[in-house]
Design a protein that fits this description.
321 residues; mainly alpha; 11 helices; 1% strand
Length: 321
């Protein structure tokens, strides 16, 4: 008898067993049942998130901007304006007043002149560079329509904010130092070097003058962290740099107005503006820390909350500009 014909297209040979009739334990990619194998994320060779947008690059960008140079020129010119005002109006001597102020001792020495320059500028003038440097960070990138390209570089959002905030605070601190340094140098030339005459009577030795002035500058910077936090938070919420800067300055002024309302009583202790001149305790024969510690605690608390809100909101924000 002849052999049975083979099926077309199937080679001859021993037959292979078919698939098992039972349920398969292999997943869609060959793994266990129900498990989906995902490829491990691969990053580009040489890419490091921590190396994007270096601080040096951001600092050079901010340094070359016109508003930085203009603000520096204004702060450096203020001491010479005060010297000219004293030369025209006469030397203040506090006659007719029961209480001697820093303004009355402005021409006693270069140190007194530097302290007076800080006194007349701490309430408002030094607020402007802080609001400008911190409020013009993210909002300016959005206004130039370059923010989304920075993030597509790719620069992580947190890295972008940290770099810009660090540079903004650095320039703010430089502004705080520029004014008293120029005032100290100009005042020493105009009025000579000598001990710091205190409004409460007595004086500080020349060796103690510079550390006390340094403490004053440090406290003013810490007290301005609230303005920095406001400006930085607003900068992440708007695409208009002027809105962020103006909003921070406006809210700071409102805080000063509320502090002047004595009817608020002890509630004013929770206002950063209530402690903005606590640095005067550093210009006492015996250094007083109480007011400065309370003021620094209030300012740092507000600033940390505002910075956290800025990072949290920016991490969830849709960047379209």
């Amino acid at each position: 008898m002849s052999a049975a014909p083979q099926s077309p297209g199937r080679p001859a040979g021993p037959s292979t067993p078919g698939p098992s009739a039972g349920p398969s334990t292999a997943g869609p990619t060959g793994g266990p049942s129900g498990a989906v194998a995902r490829p491990a994320p691969q990053s580009a060779d040489g890419y490091r998130a921590g190396r994007t947008l270096p601080l040096r690059v951001e600092a050079v960008r901010q340094w070359k901007r016109r508003r930085t140079l203009v603000m520096g020129a204004i702060l450096a010119a203020l001491p010479f304006v005060l010297i000219a005002a004293f030369a025209i109006g006469g030397t203040p001597d506090g006659r007719g007043n029961d209480r001697i102020t820093l303004m009355d001792t402005a021409t006693a020495s270069g140190a007194n002149f530097a302290a007076t320059a800080l006194f007349v500028s701490a309430g408002f003038l030094l607020v402007i560079p802080v609001a400008l440097f911190c409020g013009d960070t993210v909002a300016s990138e959005a206004g130039w329509s370059s923010l989304r390209y920075l993030l597509a570089a790719p620069v992580p959002r947190a890295r972008l904010l940290w770099s810009k905030l660090a540079v903004a605070l650095g320039f703010s601190a430089a502004a705080m130092l520029l004014l008293p340094l120029v005032a100290l140098a100009a005042g020493t030339v105009a009025y000579g070097w000598g001990p710091l005459r205190l409004p409460t009577g007595g004086s500080l030795a020349a060796a103690d003058t510079l550390p006390r002035l340094g403490l004053v500058v440090a406290y003013i910077f810490v007290s301005q962290l609230v303005t920095a936090g406001l400006a930085f938070w607003l900068s992440t919420r708007t695409d208009a740099p002027l809105g962020a800067v103006g909003g921070a300055v406006g809210l700071t002024i409102i805080g000063n107005v509320l502090d002047a309302v004595t009817a608020l009583g002890s509630w004013r202790d929770f206002l950063p503006a209530h402690w903005q001149f606590a640095w005067a305790d550093a210009l006492q024969p015996q250094l007083e820390w109480g007011g400065m510690v309370k003021g620094a605690a209030v300012s740092v608390t507000y600033a940390l909350v505002l910075f956290a809100l800025a990072f949290r909101g920016f991490a969830r924000k849709d960047i379209v500009s």
